[in-house]
Amino acid sequence: MLTQLSLRHLTLLGTSLLGSTFVLMTAESRAATTQPAPAHSAPATHKHSRPAPALVKAKPARTPKHETEVSGGTEALVVTGTREFGKKARDSIAPVDIVTNRQLTGTGQPTLRDSLALLLPSLTVPTGGFDAGALTDSISLRGLNPNETLVLVDGKRRHTTANIYADGGPAQGSTPVDIDMIPMAMIDHIEVLRDGASAQYGSDAIAGVVNIILKKQNHGLTMRSNTGITSEGDGFQQGVFIDGGLNLNNRGFVHIGGDFVHQDHTFRSGNDNRTNTDVNQLLGQPEQTRESVAINAGYDITDDIQAYAGATYAHRHAESYQNYRLPSSLSKYPGYAAIYPYGYSPIEALEEDDYELTAGLKGTLAGWHWDVSSVFGRDYDAVNAESTTNVGLYTATGETPTSFAAQAYNNTQWTNSVDLSRKFRTSFWPYAINVAGGASYRYEAYAIGTGSPASYTYSSSDAFPGTNPANAGKWSRDVAAGYLDISTNLMKHWQVDLAGRVEHYTDVGNTKTGKISTRYDFSPRFAIRGTFSNGFHAPTLAQEHYSALSVSPTAASGIIAANSPGALANGASALKSESSTSAEGGIIVEPVKKLHVTVDVYQIDLRNRIMPGGSIYGSQAHSALEMDGFNLPPGSGSWTGSQLATHWFANVANTRTQGLDLSATYPTDFGRYGHADWDVAINLNRTRLRHQASSSTGAPLLTAQSIAYITTAYPRSKIIFGGTWRSAANKWAVSVHEIRYGETTSQLTYYTGPYSFSSSHYREFPNLPKWTTNASVTYNITPKWSATIGGNNIFAKFPSVVPEGNRYLGVPKYYMSTSQLGMNGGYYYLDVSARF
């Protein structure tokens, strides 16, 4: 509780919150859509940089008097990771990427996640996804699990999805923030802090922080249509994006916007070796339709007090195919053999409702900046099994539904915060000292709902069994936190930031984190910076309590809760928080005029990583699943250890992640022939296993396959480079960028031969580096209308093909459990936008 947060704890020091930039969006940054340059760290917004030409002269929204006024649409102020007001981006003490709305729309992608993946080398997304995990859009920073990246909206912690990624892969166990549930039309810009920030924001900020800044303009109307299709002629996508602002008596604003996005299913499966046809549609992009809206508002009650409020809501329907069932599987059930005369492919269908409400007051009093806020968010997922059967129920009763309400999940987060900051000048110190502090209380709840009786009784709904009452329930916890932040200069050109934080979780106890950052400017064209910090990720309530079973035609695997009877009987123990120690150093340099370069190296030691461990097989797994109330398919009692397995989440390993980020920009002026901006951005990244835990019997908790998920499933490198040319009159823009995805290495299960379904013998499979090309041409039809035609991965490169013997039923010809190149191939689009 808050009363437990002593001043002694609050004085635990680390660094101050780090820099990211706030770009006041004028028409300069909302102009015609073009294929954008990759986002770069804050110092790229240098005083010598040339701003993009504007199509429409726009009046900035009124800024409350207690906030810092900024002139110029490209001037940048630090708002993420710092408690100082008016901190300029060029003085950033940590690596920050700034992604404007113009850059997002310029990718031609209708989803935020896929747009960011084309712009940020340090950010990756899954190649594909299994089961319900394919229905949530996750992001990862610096080759770590999505749970290690904290997502904020306007500086406030965003609630996470209720849909846990439960299947094998580097994202296994994650319940990330699904950023695509926030309307892209409402996003002003995004600030990505590539540094550990737990001392500033608490749990999850180990790899970095993504802060999504919503639009606040009190004027204007923007409309955009995006239409695209893949190089294979499927995966049709349509997006419609609308937003606009209103002036509230010249004392405030209301900005409202929304998205409609539809994506068709893509089909990338190999031939099913049971039929030697392509009837099995397992591999591919899920179909989804998403509607989302948001409102953001602020009003100056007095010259020193502003009220603000906001809300987002999104609904998504999505469908993912499961493995095809042969007609012979229904030979004993003539009534249903008639319904599915050619067999059937079960479908997982998601109905998701996601919303968040924010309200607060902020202002100044006696020189102090204060902010009091409350944020309530919830994500509800109903997952249904469709086009399937429960043959055990049919045997017992003579009938079975073909559609089942199988599973339901609910995640709730309510955060209340008080933040204070003030800049002091004293007679004993020649430089200003900025002091900030605050406290927060957060309530978290997670619930698993019971499926319909037909979905979990007898042999359960085929492919996607429903949740039985023994594994349903509701769990909650309280989190209280306090922090202290101090920043100043030790010398004129030497900055130092320190921060400390203490948190109390009612289920996993106390944590203390700190950080120290420093920067020294040798000249206006050369500076060095560095940070050292520790951080943590508290186990999510889903990781502590989730359980489920996935059933294929000849095999099944399950996850049982670490505190369930089946897990406890096999040596499971309560989850502990992950903890990290991070160090980073970098340089900011302008070796020649207008060439801006930043280089940062980093090391993240992560302890007690949470992943599935303690795997058990065959009859032992069968017994544990029955103890937890699962109904298994007929005949599964005789399945071998290669066919039936289960596990639970555990603290399985310690790892070390090392890497390098580089970015560079250079403008070229061709006079009456236009202007070009050149850019390059690189991420090099490697994770090594330092230690793995053992079970109560002394057996390692990780297999070679799960070690590969941790260490080599993310690309060793990602390079983005190219340029954008604009005509002198800004009528035309042409952009070309190359992306090189580095190699990933996986340990593949054998499905044929002597090592079939082995849990100890795997095939090492290198997914070789891939080059892709993104290009676009934009024509500004009028000052208000523009059109872009372009493509991503225009030469349709695909991941490396998996050997036949390592494809279950011969179907997954690309390996989904990596985060390298996507499997859809090329994507070509037409984008039309209007601004009024």
Which structural class do the helices and strands define? mainly beta
Globally, the shape reads globular
DSSP E strands, number: 36
Low-confidence stretches: 1-34, 42-75
Task: Indicate the proportion of strand residues.
Answer: over 45%
Radius of gyration: 27 Å
Count of helices?
11
End-to-end separation in angstroms reads 50 Å
User: How would a textbook summarize the main sheet?
Assistant: 22 strands, antiparallel, barrel
Indicate the mean pLDDT: 87
What does the oligomeric state look like here? single chain
Helix content: under 10%
Organism: Gluconobacter cerevisiae
Family: Belongs to the TonB-dependent receptor family.
Protein name: TonB-dependent receptor
Pfam families: Plug, TonB_dep_Rec_b-barrel
Report on the structure:
The chain is mainly β. Helix content is 8%, strand content 46%. The protein has a 22-stranded antiparallel β-barrel. A hairpin with a 2-residue loop joins β20 (473-491) and β21 (494-505). It is globular, with a radius of gyration of 27 Å. Mean pLDDT is 87; it is low at 1-34 and 42-75.
Q: What layout of secondary structure does this protein have?
A:
Blueprint (H helix, E strand, L loop, with lengths): L6 H4 L10 E3 L16 E2 L34 E3 L17 E5 H6 L5 H6 L5 E2 L15 E2 L7 E5 L2 E2 L29 E7 L4 H4 L6 E7 L6 E10 L6 E12 L3 E12 L23 E14 L4 E17 L12 H6 L7 E19 L2 E19 L4 H7 L5 E22 L8 E17 L3 H4 L16 E19 L2 E12 L3 E15 L2 E12 L3 H5 L2 E4 L4 E4 L5 H4 L9 E12 L6 E22 H10 L16 E26 L5 E18 L11 H8 L5 E10 L5 E10 L2 E5 L14 E5 L2 E11 L4 E8 L34 E9 L1
Parallel strand pairs: 7-10, 25-28
Antiparallel strand pairs: 1-3, 2-4, 4-9, 5-6, 7-8, 9-10, 11-12, 11-36, 12-13, 13-14, 14-15, 15-16, 16-17, 17-18, 18-19, 19-20, 20-21, 21-22, 22-23, 23-26, 24-25, 26-27, 27-28, 28-29, 29-30, 30-31, 31-34, 32-33, 34-35, 35-36
Family: Belongs to the TonB-dependent receptor family.
Membrane topology: Multi-pass membrane protein
Subcellular location: Cell outer membrane
